[in-house]
Specification:
Elements: H1 7-13, H2 23-38, E1 43-44, H3 45-56, H4 62-71, E2 76-79, E3 82-85, H5 87-118, H6 127-155, H7 168-172, H8 180-192, H9 196-214, H10 219-229, E4 233-239, H11 241-247, H12 257-266, E5 273-280, H13 281-301, H14 306-315, H15 320-331, H16 338-355, E6 358-361, H17 372-389, H18 396-411, H19 420-423, E7 425-428, H20 432-444, E8 452-453, H21 455-461, H22 470-485, H23 491-506, H24 514-521, H25 524-532, H26 536-589, H27 591-606, H28 613-636, H29 639-642, H30 645-652, H31 654-677
Parallel strand pairs: 4-5, 4-7, 5-6, 7-8
Antiparallel strand pairs: 1-3, 2-3
Helix pairs in contact: 1-2, 1-5, 1-9, 2-4, 5-8, 5-9, 6-9, 6-21, 9-22, 11-13, 12-22, 13-15, 13-16, 14-15, 14-24, 17-18, 21-22, 24-26, 27-28, 27-31, 28-31
Length: 678
Amino acid sequence: MIQQLPPEVISLIYHVELNKVHWWEKGVGQLVLAILWIDENAMSVKEIVEHSLSNYSLKLSIPAVQEAIKGAGDMIVASGEKYTLIVTAREQIRKAVEETLTIEKHAANHFTTLLEDALPGKESFDTEECWNTFNNMLLKPLVREIGASAYNLLIGAHEGSSFEEEPLDDFLGVFPGKLHRGLRKAVHDFLSSRTTIVRGYMLRILYAYLFVEASGLTQKNLETLYNLTQENVVFDLYVDTNFILSLLNFRPELPYEASTLSNLVSGEKPDQVSMTFYALSTTVDEAKSVLKAAKAKAIALNLTDKSTAQALIDANGLSGVVLAYVYHFLESEHPVTPQQFYDPYINNLIVILQSHGVTYVNKPTSNYAEDKRVTDDTDGQLKFEKKEYGDRAKTREKLLHDMILWHFVKDQRPDEIEAVAMAESWLITLDKRLLGFDGYKLDQSKDDIPVCVHPTTLAQILQIWTPRTQQFEAAMFDSTNLPILARNVDAKTEAVTFQIVRVINQYEHMLLPTSVKAKILINDSLRQRLEQEDETAAQTELIREAFRDQYEGDLQQRVIAIEEQNKYISQYVEDRTRERQISRFVGLWIPPPIIAGISTLLLMSEINGWGARPVIGGLWGLVMVLWMWLVDKFGLQHTLIKDKPLFVHFHRFRLWIMGAFGTISAGVIVKSILELLI
């Protein structure tokens, strides 16, 4: 597992700029400050060196640490042979560390939010553990690999690029397969978000691990890097088909890839660096062939509604060149045919490339097709691809183009190359298999400088000539994400997608609900079964079976939804009816006895001398008291009644009302009886 760096080291090394003179010495100085801040006890030079090696695998020499202490000035004070930080220095470092910790916390919270959105209903999922796994198994190792590739290229360390073809696979492999789609989406959305927090977090890690890689450089290597910063360097970069398609945004699933490459091609360059991008005629021809094939596939999709387009995007089952049309269809206000989308690129590709800063070169390369070097490498790579990738192996035609391009670029170089500045000609590519072949050729030869360069590596090495600005950091952030987000869709996966689409089109006359089509397209279980089945008829039957199940399931869900809605309506009507009855009860059974009792008492006061009538009125008053008692008892037993405002007020004053009625009624009865007896 990758050596972890504490926030103290990350926060301080972040401020080291590789284009500045003595950047290595400044980096060592920042590291020494971090170590003294972590260990509050005074430390000797030897203890600092040992701490750096044992905790961070950073090999510092004693003279380098002594120079760093000297360069820190009054921030470090000596006590015999040991050193410590002064109070104000500790406070400065504390603020820098707190800023880094805050950024990391916000980045983790953002990642957690994306996980919760991508994995709904997974309450038991440990998001904190996933964040740690993402950092330790994917992000930090890849960032360190990016740094290693850049330094190896600069110093001629005889290593090619080792970017994995599917860098997410190891990370995803830690989790159950049912979570992979959601996890991939969360990682994709996190790295694609250009927020200040995410960018700040990523760049701090990047610069820290670049310094870690630099710690392994010899003094001779450091002198080589320093000399490079003083030289004018020429990069003649020949693009391959993948680069062209990415530059023209034919990989829409990778946000900002096109703008990142465009910035690399047409953006502002350091004064000491001359960069020119070229496209050979053979590469342009291959790009046109890819676009024509994509157009034919897009026509076969027969897209008619945007929900199906969205499902195709979610399914991750189409190559980027076909998917570009699906994205365009989804985002367009008016329907766009595949012909309208692809033909402008097919018919005007050279002009379009020139408008993007790529120069067309019509140099003859037909003789390379018969060159023994090319044919031997093509045959060897084809054999390797079939063994390594099986059904996903490139065709011989594609490999032949790659080998022609590789040997053409190599032939443009001088016979003897001792440094990067002498190479001049490069093959710039995002194709990790071609990069792997380049590494293989390095191992088989005496060369120290690779022929191929990944755009991310190129962006990294430009640091030694480029001042760190906000625009530069944005470009660094975007280029760092390219190896992580890149994902290849093999021909078999795409064929499965088209097989599903063909069956969908057969059912078009049934006006299938778009929800059914979408669920079939993103059904991972169905896709796995289809990939294991070679017979077209059997595949078709599997898809039809899935359609029937999904359609019946969709109908059943709709029936259940209607039944639930009917239950809700019935319950609503019942509740409203009961509420009206209760309101009627409260309105009819509380005021009347009170009004009747008051009227009786008033009447008794007028006819008090009329014989037995007062007695009857008094008895009626007692009946009203009993009535009010029963109403109060009944109302308290029913929630809907006892919460009614009228009942609440009645219940609050019931004792006063009933007491008054009872006392007066009893007095009238007693008085009337006494008068009758007398």
